[in-house]
Every structure is written in C-alpha cells, then in structure tokens.
UniProtKB/TrEMBL annotation:
GO molecular function: aspartate kinase activity; ATP binding; homoserine dehydrogenase activity; metal ion binding; NADP binding
Keyword Metal-binding: yes
Cofactor: a metal cation
Reactions catalysed: L-homoserine + NADP(+) = L-aspartate 4-semialdehyde + NADPH + H(+); L-aspartate + ATP = 4-phospho-L-aspartate + ADP
Domain Aspartate/homoserine dehydrogenase NAD-binding: 599-736
Pathway: Amino-acid biosynthesis; L-threonine biosynthesis; L-threonine from L-aspartate: step 3/5; Amino-acid biosynthesis; L-threonine biosynthesis; L-threonine from L-aspartate: step 1/5; Amino-acid biosynthesis; L-methionine biosynthesis via de novo pathway; L-homoserine from L-aspartate: step 3/3; Amino-acid biosynthesis; L-methionine biosynthesis via de novo pathway; L-homoserine from L-aspartate: step 1/3
Name the record gives this protein: Aspartokinase/homoserine dehydrogenase, chloroplastic
Domain of life: Eukaryota
Source organism phylogeny: Eukaryota, Sar, Stramenopiles, Ochrophyta, Bacillariophyta
The family this protein is said to belong to: In the N-terminal section; belongs to the aspartokinase family.
SUPFAM superfamilies linked to this entry: ACT-like, Carbamate kinase-like, Glyceraldehyde-3-phosphate dehydrogenase-like, C-terminal domain, NAD(P)-binding Rossmann-fold domains
Entry keywords, A to Z: Amino-acid biosynthesis, ATP-binding, Kinase, Metal-binding, Methionine biosynthesis, Multifunctional enzyme, NAD, NADP, Nucleotide-binding, Oxidoreductase, Signal, Sodium, Threonine biosynthesis, Transferase
Signal peptide: 1-26
Function per UniProt: Bifunctional aspartate kinase and homoserine dehydrogenase that catalyzes the first and the third steps toward the synthesis of lysine, methionine and threonine from aspartate.
C-alpha cells in the first residue's frame, strides 16, 4: 500500500508539474513585445550558421557529427554564425549585475568589426536562488510556514531586481510580476502535497528549482527589451531541450563533476528548436541581430517529464545550444580572468592559463576546478567549437580559450622527434594546472587471501550496486589490497556495501579488514606535457615531501595527462601551493617568523630582507614573506598573504593598538596553520625556552634557523630529540650563523665528514669580542677601553658576562663538537674566565665596564709577557676529536699559528684532519657585529628556499 501511495503521489506531482510547465510555455509565447512579434522563417544561403540536426544514433555516441538533415538558418542581415554566452549566478546576483550582463550582450552582438552577430545567452538563476528554492522544497516536509516564507523571499527578491532593473516600463514588468506571483501559487500547491507523502520525488525538486532559471531569463530579457535597440526573445529550455537519463536521480551534489548520465536527444531537440524559431523568431531591427535568452540547467525528458542537467549544469546547457546552432564560439562569463593554474583563493600566486585543450579542461574540471563543468566540453568537441572563459568584470581581458584535442598515447609514441624537440625546448612547463577535490574518503580492503577469486571485480561490483561514485582506485598486484577514493558523503554507504559483498570472507577471516578513512582530499596535476617529459611525478612527489604532506594514495591516468594523490584534508592547500611552486608556476615563497626581530641582529636581518626583496623576486623568483615578528614581550602577525611590511614592524611592536603578548604557543599555532609549503622560524631570542618548541616545530614540517646558541649547546637529551625530529621529518635546523655568523664553519665540517675525511683537532677563536679586544689593546689603549669600543660597535653579547666569562665561546665549541659527533655538554668544556670571582654578572653593562677597569693592569702585564716572547694574546678554543676534550683559554700564540694574525673583527677556525695534516684547513673572515650575523641568517634562509626549489621543472 505504501508503494502504491508513493507512486500515486509522484503521478499527481507529475501532472501538476506538467500543468506548471505548460503555464510557463504559454508565458513564453505571450510575453514577446508587440514591436518584436515574430516574422516568418527566412533561410539564408550565405550563412555559416545552422541549427544542428543529428541522428538518434549520436545519443549513444555511435555516430559522428553527420546530420540527417541540414538546413541553414540565420537572422536576416548577417552572415555571421551564432555566438553563445553563458552567465552563472554570481554574474546575476543583483540588478546592477543584470544590467552589466545585458549591456555586455548588446556590445557583443555588435560584433568585432565584422558585422553584427546573432547572440544567445544561457543564464543561471539569480545568485543564491537555487539554494533558496531547495529550502522551499525541503522545508515543506517539516514546516509549511517556513517553506512559504522562503518561497515568498525568493519571489520577492526576484521582483525587486526586476523593478530596479526596469523602473519605468510597467508595460514590460507588470505582466512578468503577475506571472511570478502565479508561479508562486503553483509552486506552493506542489510542495503542499509533499507533507502527505513525507518524501520529495526527484521531479518535484527539479520542477521547483528550475523556476530560478525561468525567472532569471525573463528578468534579463525584460532589461534587453526595455532598451528598444535590439530584437530579443527568451526560451524556456524545457520547451525545446529533450534529454534522456535517470529522472529519479535528483539534482545531484553542488559542484559535482557529473550530470548523472543526462544526454541530449539531438534530433528531437533540433526539431523543437526549429519549431520555436519558426513561431517566435524576433522581428528584425535595422543593423541589429537578435539576442535570444535561454534558461540554463533545465530540460525535459522524451516523456515530457521536467528534469535538469543537475547542479552546476548550466555550462552544459550553453555548449548544447552551441552545438545545436553550430555556433562559432561559446563564452563562459565568470568572475575570474579565465581558468587559473590553481584556485586563487588557496594559491594566491595562481594566474590565468591562456589556452587549454578540451581534454585538459575536462581533467581539471573532473578533479575539482569549479570554473567549468566537465560535461560542458563534450558537445563542443565534435564540432570543434572553441570555448572561451572570460571575466564579466574585466571583459577586455582575453581570458582562457579551450580548443583542440590532446594527442593519444599512440600518436605521441609515433612522434618521437616532436617529443625530443619538446624536451629540448626551454621554458616549457609540462603541466597546465593543479586542482583538488575536497570532502573525500578512502575505503580500503586489505589482506584478502581468496585464491582464484576476482576481488577487484566483486569490490567494484559492490560499489556499482550501491551507486557509489569511485573517484580513484589503486590495488596491489595480487588483489590482496584495494583502496578507492569516494565522495565523503558516500563513505559509509560504500563501507556497508563491501561488508555485505564480503560478509562470508570477513566471517572466515579471509580478509584482514575493511576500513573507512574520512577527511581526505584529492590533489591532481594536469597537462598534456606530462606524457612528453620525464621527472614530472618525481617533482610532484618531492614537492609534497618537502612541504611535509603525507600521501595516502597515488594514481596516474592512462592518458598520462594527470597524476592524482590523496592527502589529509588539512594538508590540501599546502599541497596545492607546494606543487604550484615546484613546477615554476609561481615564485618560491617562504613564510618566515622572526622571533627577536627588534634586537640588533633581528633589526639588521629585517633591513637586509627589505633591501633585497625586489632583487629576490625578479632575479631568483623568491619571496620571503614575514608572517610573524616579535620582541621579547610582544608579537604581530600578518593580516594577509602579502606578509608584514618589515619597515613597519618596529613601530607595530611599540604600538598599544597593534599586536598581542608574545607567546611561543601562539607563534606555533600561526605557523602550523600557515598553508605555505615552506615555513621557517628564525629564532633570534637566544633563550632556552624556545628550544622546548623546536621538536614540535620540526615535526610539523617547519624549518628552523637558529642564530642563538643556548639550544644548540643546551641539554644534550633535548638536543638529540631535536636532531631526531629534524631527520625524521625531512626538514632543516640550520645553526651555521650561531657559530661564525656568515662564515661556513658547520658546513665545512659536514663537507669533511661526507667526503670521508677524519678530524683530529679543531682550534681557533669564535668570539668577536675577544678577537677585537686582544687585537686592539696595548700600552696606549687599556683593556677596559678596548672592551668599551667593542660594545659600542655591537660586537659584544647583550650580557657582557657571556663574553668575558668565556661562556659565549664555550657554547659555540659545544655546538661544533656535537656537529663532529661528540656527546659534549657545556660543563665538559675546560673554561678560563677573564672575570674574577668577585665580579657580579647581575650588574648592567655600564657598571660592568666600570668594574673592568680593575682588569687593565693584569691584562697589560700578560700582554707584555707575551710580547717579550714574540707572541700575542688570543682567546683560543681547542677540540681534541680523539679524546673528546674541549678547552677555551687565553693563551700566548706564536707567530707560527694562523691565530697570531687574527684581526679585530675576525673569527678563525683551523681544521687539522687526516687530509689536512701538514697544513690545516682554515676558515677565516669578518664575523663580528649584527650586520654579519644577520647576513649569515639571511644566507641560511636563501639556502633553504634554493634547496626547496632545487628539483623544480
């Protein structure tokens, strides 16, 4: 009984829908203004435009573009072919936008210097209207009052746009408003019946939601009609467009890459369009071609049942009518400058693609590019009709043109010379775009041990029986494990279907597990050049690895035009940006946080980055985007993707109205949330507190540049954990600038080890303060005076005791020793302090310098004693790699050692190794002062960005 009642209700709804559609058809016939009444059809033998007539065979794809009849039609006064323009809801959201569209149509109809052009516009519903009408239908099941309110809002908003658009032409607007109100009553009658059956038949939803397009077409037609300068008419596509497909499917999901198998019946549609043209052809006006406005999205079946081309299907409507009219071109008007290399909302560096092949466009659309619907290409391919994607708000921009087919693999293999030439050409990028599909789930069967059974066939059969859309499939060669990506909304359905299909095997434990993994996204690269260039997949995968993006599934299309991976949903944007950078589609951008940016070194670094920014962008394709900066008490973060203006950071940190209290946890949240694939924290704080976060930062794929020494020389267990995190997550912890500023000390150690050398001893001086003081003071300039000069030049640490006690150099020695492989801590360093035990390091710098005057005489005595021996005083470190002992001492250095000739602002490191046994390898150079320290940090930043882009194509 329930089934009979349900079928009866559907039948009633169909009857009512049919009456509504008839009403709409009658309106179509009666609303053409008197001045534009139809004239008889006039064939034109010189026209290249015709209404396309196809055989029924073509519906099933078995026929080519040959026609059963071939009749040429053209508006009088022009030999130009039709051009089709499609406008989406975003272009029709307000009265002003409707006016913009109408004016643009009139301008396009005037042609491009080759005479007037017959113009057809396919329109979507007003922005947001379809969603509102869906609410009307769904709401009727629960609360009829709510449905009435939503319906009233929908109709009222459309009337408001109409009245604002055509304010003083009641002869045009009043009949339309009257019909809108009648439509409202008819819709209300339809949805009231839903409460009786407590379900929504697919045809009801499609009938009601289709009114958005019907109202939109009439509204735009009213404006064009009010101009009185161009012949115009509008078509309810349900009167002419006949399709076949599953009428019970419903609207489908918004943004879906499928029309649910709906295809036009070309012969029936052509006959109906031909009939419409004969009866309602707009009356010609002097020097004008007609503008015909058509409802997108809607159609009807061969059984006269109203249906749609499913959500986002208006693009399909446009290309269907392009094929029917044998149009010269189709223009999809969007609110972007064409098809972009990636979604510009997620990849700010994305830019418009000048041209695409049909196949590339379909691949991009299938994998989530919202600019075009995948099915939209199909009607244009056979007739080779170019599709343009242009910006309604920037019509002067050429946008993207889509035309031509990609060669098949067989054709590509037969053109070896072309492939070699392509590879040899410079500047060619093998991919056209990068796109993604969000809200994906993975369904996995693993551990199948069913001998002789076709696991894959049963697996996919279960998916097909449950009507689950399989987006990607991968399997082990033995069929023991299979994973598919499905829409997340169908994940539970897919899992249930597999449990039913393999119920017996699960009970017998012939299958280890069936699992569902939600919150996934597909990221895909697309381009015909992928089949012609090696290394594309390597570049793609490497870029994701460098961005710390874990890949859960990999699949490559057999056409070799796309490679898709499945990643965590939260990593999708970072993956898009990483791939976009890797294929040189955009500059390499690093998101940088500078902690301690107002100190001497931090200030110098900010100044150097700001001064080199233009050169980095233009010459190296690098953008160091500072997203966060701090002082010891406060922090500021960027408000957009352009980052902070470094010239303003200091003022922002001083302002009472900007920023927030400095907090390492907040910095961590900002950097973890950053979608840029290359993230770097520059830690100029030189605090042990920062070290507590290093392991977490590295584990999240965030690189660290650490000019401070307290972490690298701090707790050995923490140090080892940080190193393990760095190695385990393929990220970098650069400490080069913590030892010798811009000198390549640590990198030299690595080079020696990696080339097989063995270190015996490392000696030298790594304190700018000590180097300056002991190269400066003598009988005429006291020790304390030289120390004051070093402080004035910025050579000393913030805490002068760090220098004079030897702690600063000892920390550098520990860092070097650990790089060599010695498990050394600060307490293990034999250290000579220049400060007597009576000195207090709690005093400020000026007070300490005053107390240092008491050191002038003993230091002068040691100076003279060394001078008498032909030596010089130097504060020297030594690392004995054999015994692991480390020392920092003030020694008398003879003129046979390189340290004897150390200059005022220099550091020096001598490597005594197996290969450099007779004469040590010496790294020496200026290293004292904030400018040199900042340049070392800057070099580390550039080294990271270059390493990131090293494998780019």
């Amino acid at each position: 009984m329930k089934t009979d009642r349900h079928q009866s209700s559907i039948w009633a709804a169909l009857l009512l829908a049919g009456s509504i559609l008839s009403s709409a058809s009658a309106f179509t016939a009666t609303k053409t203004p008197t001045s534009l009444k139809t004239a008889s059809l006039r064939p034109s033998l010189i026209s290249s435009s015709r209404l396309f007539v196809a055989t029924e065979q073509e519906v099933d794809g078995s026929a080519s573009s040959s026609t059963s009849t071939s009749t040429l039609y053209s508006p009088p006064g022009t030999s130009n072919a039709w051009e089709i323009h499609k406008f989406g809801g975003a272009s029709l959201a307000t009265a002003e936008l409707y006016k913009t569209v109408g004016d643009l149509l009139c301008q396009e109809a005037q042609g491009r210097g080759e005479g007037v052009i017959p113009t057809m516009a396919v329109v979507s519903a007003k922005g947001g209207m379809t969603d509102l009408l869906v609410q009307v239908v769904d709401g009727a099941l629960l609360d009829m009052n709510r449905a009435e309110v939503a319906l009233s809002e929908a109709v009222t908003s459309q009337i408001a746009v109409l009245q604002e658009l055509v304010p003083n032409r009641h002869d045009i607007t009043e009949p339309i408003i009257e019909n809108f109100r009648q439509d409202e009553k008819d819709i209300l009658s339809v949805v009231q019946s839903l409460r009786m059956i407590q379900t929504v038949p697919a045809v009801t939803m499609e009938v009601v939601t289709g009114y958005g397009e019907i109202w939109s077409a009439q509204t735009l037609h009213a404006y064009v009609q009010s101009l009185d300068t161009v012949p115009t008419a509008w078509i309810d596509a349900r009167d002419v467009l006949v399709v076949k497909g599953d009428s019970n499917m419903g609207l489908g999901e918004k943004g879906a890459a499928s029309t649910g198998g709906v295809v036009p019946l070309w012969e029936e549609t052509t006959q109906k369009l031909e009939q419409w043209w004969q009866e309602k052809q707009p009356k010609p006006l002097p020097d004008s071609s007609p503008i015909v406005i058509v409802t997108g999205f809607v159609a009807k079946t061969a059984e006269n049942v109203p249906t749609t081309l499913k959500r986002s299907g208006s693009d399909y409507s446009a290309t269907i009518f392009a094929k029917l009219t044998d149009a010269a071109r189709v223009t999809m008007w969007k609110n972007t400058n064409g098809v972009y290399t990636a979604d510009p909302r997620r990849v700010p560096e994305a830019f418009p693609i000048s041209s695409l092949k049909y196949d590339e466009a379909m691949e991009l659309a299938y994998f989530g590019a919202q600019v075009l619907h995948p099915s939209a290409m199909e009607p244009c391919i056979d007739k080779e009709i170019p599709v343009y994607v242009r910006n309604i708000f920037n019509p002067a921009f050429e946008g993207t043109v889509i035309r031509g087919r990609c060669p098949t693999l067989k054709e590509s293999n037969e053109k070896k010379n072309a492939i070699m030439n392509w590879r040899a050409s410079s500047g060619e990028i093998p991919i056209k775009g990068i796109t993604s599909v969000d809200k994906v789930a993975l369904v996995t069967l693993e551990g199948a041990t069913m001998a002789g059974a076709s696991v894959a066939a049963r697996f996919l059969g279960a998916m097909a029986s449950a009507d689950v859309t399989v987006l990607i499939i991968t399997q082990a060669s033995s069929e023991s494990s299979i994973t598919v990506a499905v829409p997340e909304s169908q994940g539970e359905l897919a899992l249930a279907a597999l449990k039913d299909a393999f119920e017996l095997e699960l009970a017998r434990e012939n299958i280890n597990s069936l699992s569902l993994t939600p919150d996934m996204s597909i990221v895909a690269i697309v381009g015909e050049g992928m089949a012609l260039k090696s290394g594309v997949s390597s570049t793609f995968m490497t870029s994701l690895a460098r961005a710390n993006v874990n890949i859960r599934l990999i699949a490559q299309g057999s056409s070799e035009r796309q490679i898709a991976v499945v990643v965590e949903k939260d990593d999708a944007t970072r993956a898009l940006r990483a791939a976009h950078m890797a294929f040189t589609l955009s500059e390499t951008t690093a998101s940088v946080a500078i902690l301690g940016s107002t100190g001497l070194v931090g200030t110098a670094l900010a100044s150097q980055i700001q001064g080199q920014r233009e050169m980095l962008n233009q010459e190296l394709g690098i953008d160091l985007c500072v997203t966060c900066a701090s002082c010891s008490t406060k922090m500021v973060s960027a408000k957009d993707s352009r980052g902070l203006d470094l010239s303003e950071v200091s003022d922002l940190l001083k302002s009472d109205e900007e920023g927030q209290e400095f907090d390492f946890d907040e910095v961590t949240k900002i950097m973890e949330a950053d979608v840029n694939p290359l993230r770097i924290i520059v830690d100029c704080t030189n605090t042990e507190k920062a070290g507590e976060y290093y392991e977490r930062w590295l584990s999240k794929g965030i690189h660290i540049v650490s000019p401070g020494r307290k972490v690298g020389s701090g707790d050995l267990d923490l140090y080892n954990k940080i190193c393990a995190a760095q190695k385990g997550h393929a990220v970098e912890w650069y400490t080069e600038s913590s030892v010798g500023s811009a000198l390549p000390v640590i990198s030299t150690i690595r080079d020696l080890f990696e080339t097989g050398d063995r270190l015996n001893k490392v000696t030298g001086c790594l304190s700018g303060t000590m180097a300056f003081v002991f190269s400066t003071f003598d009988e005429s300039l006291s020790f304390s005076e030289a120390l004051s000069m070093a402080a004035e030049k910025g050579y000393t640490e913030n805490d002068l005791c760090e220098d004079l006690s030897g702690q600063d150099m000892a920390r550098k020695v520990v860092i070097l020793a650990r790089q060599i492989g010695l498990d050394v801590s600060l307490d293990d360093v034999e250290l000579e302090s220049l400060l007597p035990d009576t000195f207090s390091c709690a005093m400020d710098t000026d007070a300490l310098l005053e107390d240092c005057k008491s050191l002038d005489k003993p230091m002068l005595d040691r100076f003279k004693a060394a001078q008498e021996k032909g030596c010089k005083l130097r504060y020297k470190f030594e690392i004995d790699c054999g015994t692991g002992k480390c020392k920092c001492q003030l020694l008398e250095i003879p003129n046979t050692e390189a340290l004897f000739r150390l200059k005022r602002n220099e550091n020096l490191v001598a490597f005594d190794t197996k290969r450099y046994e007779t004469s040590p390898l010496i790294v020496k150079g200026a290293a004292a002062g904030p400018e040199l320290a900042a340049s070392g940090i800057f070099a580390d930043l550039l080294r990271l960005t270059r390493a990131y882009s090293a494998n780019q194509i």
